[in-house]
Amino acid sequence: MKLTSIRTAGREEAVVRTAYGLVPVRLLNEAAGTEWGDTVQHLLDSEQLARLNGWLQDKGAAVLSTLEAIPLERAEYAPLYRRPRKIWGIGANYRDKAADMSVVPPDAEPICFLKPDTSLIGPGDAIVLPSEDGRYTAEAELGIVIGRTCKDVPEEKALDVVAGFAATLDMTAQHIHARNPRFLGRSKSFDTFFSIGPELITPEEIDDLASLRVETALNGRVMHRASVAEMIYTIPFIISYFSRIMTLLPGDIIMTGTPGSVEIASGVTAECRISGFASLTNPVRQAGELEQPAL
Q: C-alpha distances in angstroms, 247 versus 149, 152, 165, 250?
């Protein structure tokens, strides 16, 4: 299943992406008499997402095929959801990136950091750089979305707790981090410094996680790329590692590291491309600048 969120009549709602367009979960409920949550947030919080996916692969498929779909090009995309309880990130998780940074993670454990949900934006939203002069970067990353409450998950069971995967962009005020490595959290916590979307793709849709290619692009040009197979810490390890520290909750997000960062400034567009996923793009502007009207 591929889920996304769109803005419709002043509200944000969950839609299922099909081969012929986007079908709101709201319409599925009306047609089938079901009571699935009609936002991605509701589906995650109530742990309904896996059950909705199973229903769509069974009885719901016939209902889905009868409903009118919104063409992809007509949709106004929103963030997948607004209130993840936790947004975790991992640093230097691709071998080449770690080598370029001359970074060796301590004691074979990942470098990690937290971001607040006030940093969250969605597809097409502006990354707004603070008024402070400095060097700012964006990094494309594969994001893991947790699907159910879990603790101390063994690696061999880790994918069982995943709701799905999503494209993400992680922004950093590098000049702040450069002052002192202990300032990493502050350098990543500004409003609009985390983007996610436009799709949440459930695990069964992905044949081979390791073969996924992650690309950081700037103004449409790919600047860095690597496959998930080049990660130092695998996705099952990452999930298990964080679950040993704390209880993971539905909707928690874990970014898995980047193949490389790009410097951003007002007027450019940052992009996360992942093979098989819709691209995530965000324009960049400076605080205080007026947003440009859409053409």
A: 7, 8, 19, 10
Domains within the chain, CATH numbers bracketed: 2-74 (no CATH), 87-286 (3.90.850.10)
In sequence order, the 6+-apart residues with CB closer than 8 A to the CB of 45 are: 37, 250, 251
To the nearest 10°, report the CA torsion of 20, 24, 26, 31: 0
The tens digit of pLDDT for each residue in 247-263 reads 999 999 999 999 999 99
Q: Tell me: the pLDDT tens digits for 15-71?
A: 999 989 999 999 999 999 999 999 999 999 999 999 999 999 998 999 999 999 999
Token pair for residue 126?
């502006």
From start to end of 109-243, where are the E strands? Answer: 111-115, 120-121, 127-129, 136-146, 162-173, 194-196, 200-201, 213-218, 221-227
Cβ–Cβ under 8 Å, residues 226 and 214? yes
DSSP 290: P
Cα–Cα distance for residue pair 57/51, rounded to 1 Å: 10
Strand, helix or coil for residue 25: helix
